[in-house]
């Protein structure tokens, strides 16, 4: 009985056990089925993620900003030093031959002091046409281009070198890259990348179990992580899709699945090309350097196609860890890694023993760290951005890959920066002062193109832009417009008209305004041109009040100033706040013979595919007649020859005719100079941000920076041939009447032909030669 119950219990227990096991297996089956279903759904989701990004717009491409190209032509003003500086900034290499793009052979003739350059240009796709890569010869002598010929010896009318990239507008993620097609990649780079990073790339399907096992064994036996098992496809997935995933477990599983999916949908060539453009190779401030094409520019300032063996090896070596192998911070570590890559290249038969030895002995060859930054001219870039924002959305500038061609001349910009930095430091030392700030605007004369812009004495400073935003009293810089207002009344005024520099006072705002000259002296009756050349306050104030405040204010507005001009007597001596950019716009009208042109920093904008989007054509409007502006320019030339700006010719060759005007405000808080040649206009301001007094007058401060800049800049003299209706003659400085060369006090001045003085002065001859005296009596 007991035995039967025990057997029954065991039978029942076994039955329950079987039912439980069956139920468990059922639950396991359903669990596995659910897991498979979830895995399938997850895989489908990952598959959509993979395809959506890979087939869509892979990257937000920044707008790239270029300087104006260097255009070479016979007769062009050019110095070898500035030319070579420009070439090096473009990454050209001076070699023993010019057998490939980016190479130059230089020959110096000791007898003729000429320099001959054999140049192999790179070519570039401009807004108007594509310039091909070409070989040509350039001969420079006496600071100008003496010859420009092709290989066959035929004259070339013009050669345009590729422009320097000066900045960009980057996406929110701050990623930057230059896209390159697989077919355009140097074969040695692609071969080396495969040899070092994924030797079996063509054999696996996204994941390589053998590589994982091999890496695990090597790492275990060495006691540290020395080798990775990730394929190129896995590396791409990690960088392209899983950038925010920190957990290794949560990253590795989707990484493996997505790698297989990539291999299922896309060819090896497509995957490798994307990897080459995606791989992280360094950091420049907040901007990440992605892809080998941009990496070549970042480290070597060279196109990828021009890199040597040791440079290609360094780029591939950096892939393992851009921060760890940073060649600027860890040069020895980077060189060791580069040499390891070179050894792999030799082992795989990509280079021979001689190439290996030479490459391993080569220096890293990287540019100085500061030169690797793309945005090198922050003040100018701020101006470009402001002008672009009038026509484009911010999001388009940061994602659509626009190509923006600007007016900046790197040659002029670098010369301006050097002059500002060195002279301000010298002035602070000379006057035992500090905290002097400065700004500068340089334009082409006639075209209104902004060639250079400095917003801070430190040109790399990207904060407050004084050239655009610092509005300061302009002082005597406003005086030329007072004299222009007078010269526009030719029946009353010419440069020899006698005006008074006696004390003057006017009631303004319930108070008496009585300006004094800087030298505290009265100069009596003077010819009109002297009032401007010597910057006399009393004569200028009297002249301005005589012609009328409203007339002077209108002249200032016609010259290009868009702000409010207070019609008060103090305005005549510069009691108006303006920025250097506003002054540049007004003075450009004077330099361009009365033709107003809006200053601009952009020439052309192209879409990523090269399609033109917008051009910025030249706008011209004749606002002052050529007769008046020629006379004014001549008076401003006398400012530099004999007046307040005469110290400029202590540095500049007297053979160059220049015009300008000094400006100094109360207590020398602002030191200004505005001057121009026939080709360049430059405005300089020096002062302190807190508006405190300085020891610098316009002549002692800003003029010195301007002279430093102009003396080394290839430029043309102002034209001396007067326009139709104007001719030179001798006038008497005391009476304003016609005179003669041999008469005492005679001055050679331009006059309007239809408003010449009707009377001649009786004068004593300076030259007592009897023959000359007889002739003078006969003709008079």
Helix and strand composition category: alpha+beta
The number of strands is 32
Low-confidence stretches: 222-227
N- and C-termini, Cα separation:
166 Å
Biggest beta sheet summary: 5 strands, mixed
- Please give the share of residues in helix: 25-40%
Total DSSP helices? 23
Percentage of β-strand residues: 15-25%
**Rg of Cα set:** 37 Å
- Across the major sheet, the strand order is 11-1-15-25-26
Global shape = elongated
Mean pLDDT across every amino acid position: 87
Question: Could you give the topology of this structure?
Answer:
Blueprint: H1 2-55, E1 63-66, E2 71-72, H2 80-89, E3 93-94, E4 103-108, E5 115-120, E6 124-125, E7 130-131, E8 135-141, E9 144-150, E10 159-160, E11 165-169, E12 175-177, H3 187-197, H4 209-222, H5 232-240, H6 248-265, H7 268-278, E13 280-284, E14 287-290, H8 292-300, H9 309-318, H10 331-347, H11 353-361, H12 378-388, H13 394-397, E15 403-406, H14 410-431, E16 437-444, E17 450-454, H15 466-469, E18 472-473, H16 479-487, E19 498-500, E20 506-508, E21 511-513, E22 525-527, H17 528-533, H18 537-547, H19 549-558, E23 577-578, H20 580-591, E24 595-596, E25 602-606, E26 612-615, E27 621-622, H21 626-641, E28 659-664, E29 670-676, E30 680-687, H22 698-711, E31 726-732, E32 746-752, H23 770-779
Parallel strand pairs: 1-15, 3-4, 12-14
Antiparallel strand pairs: 1-11, 2-10, 4-5, 5-8, 6-7, 8-9, 13-14, 15-25, 16-17, 16-30, 18-23, 19-22, 20-21, 24-27, 25-26, 28-29, 29-30, 31-32
């Amino acid at each position: 009985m007991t035995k039967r119950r025990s057997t029954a219990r065991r039978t029942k227990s076994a039955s329950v056990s079987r039912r439980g096991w069956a139920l468990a297996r059922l639950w396991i089956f359903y669990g596995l089925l659910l897991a498979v279903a979830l895995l399938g759904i997850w895989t489908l989701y990952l598959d959509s993620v993979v395809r959506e990004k890979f087939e869509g717009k892979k990257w937000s491409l920044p707008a790239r900003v270029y300087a104006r190209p260097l255009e070479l032509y016979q007769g062009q003003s050019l110095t070898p030093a500035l030319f070579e500086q420009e070439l090096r900034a473009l990454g050209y290499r001076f070699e023993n031959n010019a057998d490939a793009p980016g190479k130059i052979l230089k020959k110096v003739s000791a007898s003729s002091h000429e320099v001959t350059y054999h140049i192999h240009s790179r070519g570039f796709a401009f807004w108007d046409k594509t310039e091909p890569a070409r070989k040509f010869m350039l001969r420079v002598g006496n600071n100008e281009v003496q010859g420009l010929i092709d290989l066959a010896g035929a004259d070339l009318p013009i050669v345009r070198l590729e422009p320097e990239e000066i900045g960009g507008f980057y996406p929110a993620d701050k990623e930057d890259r230059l896209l390159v097609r697989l077919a355009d990649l140097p074969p040695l780079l692609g071969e080396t990348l495969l040899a070092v990073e994924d030797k079996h790339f063509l054999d696996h399907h996204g994941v390589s179990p053998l590589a994982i096992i091999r890496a695990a064994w090597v790492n275990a036996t060495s006691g540290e992580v020395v080798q990775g098992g990730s394929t190129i496809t896995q590396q791409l997935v990690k960088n392209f899709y899983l950038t925010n995933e920190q957990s290794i477990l949560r990253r590795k599983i989707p990484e493996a699945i997505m790698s297989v999916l990539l291999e299922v949908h896309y060819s090896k060539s497509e995957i490798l090309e994307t990897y080459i453009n995606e791989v992280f190779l360094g950091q420049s401030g907040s901007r990440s350097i992605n892809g080998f094409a941009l990496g070549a520019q970042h480290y070597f300032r060279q196109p990828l196609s021009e890199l040597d063996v040791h440079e290609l090896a360094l780029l591939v070596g950096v892939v393992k860890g851009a921060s760890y192998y940073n060649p600027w911070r860890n040069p020895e570590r980077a060189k060791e890694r580069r040499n390891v890559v070179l050894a792999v290249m030799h082992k795989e038969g990509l280079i021979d023993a001689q190439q290996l030895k030479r490459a391993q002995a080569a220096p890293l060859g990287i540019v100085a760290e500061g030169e690797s930054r793309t945005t090198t001219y922050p003040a100018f870039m701020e101006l470009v951005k402001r002008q672009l924002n009038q026509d484009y959305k911010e999001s388009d500038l940061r994602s659509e890959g626009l190509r923006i061609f600007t007016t900046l001349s790197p040659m002029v910009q670098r010369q301006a920066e050097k002059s500002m930095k060195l002279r301000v430091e010298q002035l602070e030392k000379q006057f035992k002062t500090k905290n002097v700030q400065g700004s500068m605007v340089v334009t082409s004369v006639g075209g209104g193109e902004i060639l250079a812009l400095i917003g801070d004495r430190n040109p790399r400073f990207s904060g407050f832009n004084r050239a655009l935003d610092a509005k300061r009293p302009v002082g005597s810089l406003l005086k030329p417009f007072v004299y222009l207002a007078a010269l526009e009344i030719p029946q009353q005024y010419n440069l020899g008209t006698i005006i008074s520099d006696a004390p003057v006072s006017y009631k303004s705002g319930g108070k008496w305004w009585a300006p004094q000259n800087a030298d505290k002296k009265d100069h009596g009756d003077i010819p009109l041109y002297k009032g401007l050349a010597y910057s006399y306050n009393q004569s200028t104030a009297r002249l301005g009040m005589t012609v009328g405040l409203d007339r002077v204010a209108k002249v200032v507005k016609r010259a290009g100033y868009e702000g409010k001009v207070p019609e008060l007597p103090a305005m005549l001596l510069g009691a108006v706040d303006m920025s250097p950019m506003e002054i540049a716009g007004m003075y450009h009208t004077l330099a361009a013979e009365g033709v107003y042109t809006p200053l601009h920093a952009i020439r052309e904008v192209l879409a990523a595919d090269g399609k033109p989007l917008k051009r910025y054509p030249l706008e011209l409007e004749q606002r002052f007649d050529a007769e008046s502006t020629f006379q004014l320019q001549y008076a401003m030339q006398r400012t530099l020859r004999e007046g307040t700006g005469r110290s400029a010719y202590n540095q500049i060759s007297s053979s160059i005719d220049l015009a300008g005007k000094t400006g100094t405000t109360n207590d020398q808080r602002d030191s200004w100079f505005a001057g121009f040649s026939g080709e360049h206009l430059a405005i300089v301001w020096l002062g302190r941000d807190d508006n405190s007094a300085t020891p610098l007058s316009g002549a002692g401060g800003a003029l010195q920076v301007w002279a430093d800049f102009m003396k080394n800049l290839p430029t043309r003299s102002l034209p001396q041939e007067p326009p139709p209706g104007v001719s030179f003659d001798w006038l008497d400085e005391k009476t304003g009447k016609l005179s003669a060369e041999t008469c005492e006090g005679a001055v050679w001045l331009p006059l309007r032909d239809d408003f010449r003085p009707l009377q001649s002065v009786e004068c004593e001859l300076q030259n007592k030669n009897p023959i000359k005296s007889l002739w003078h009596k006969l003709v008079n």
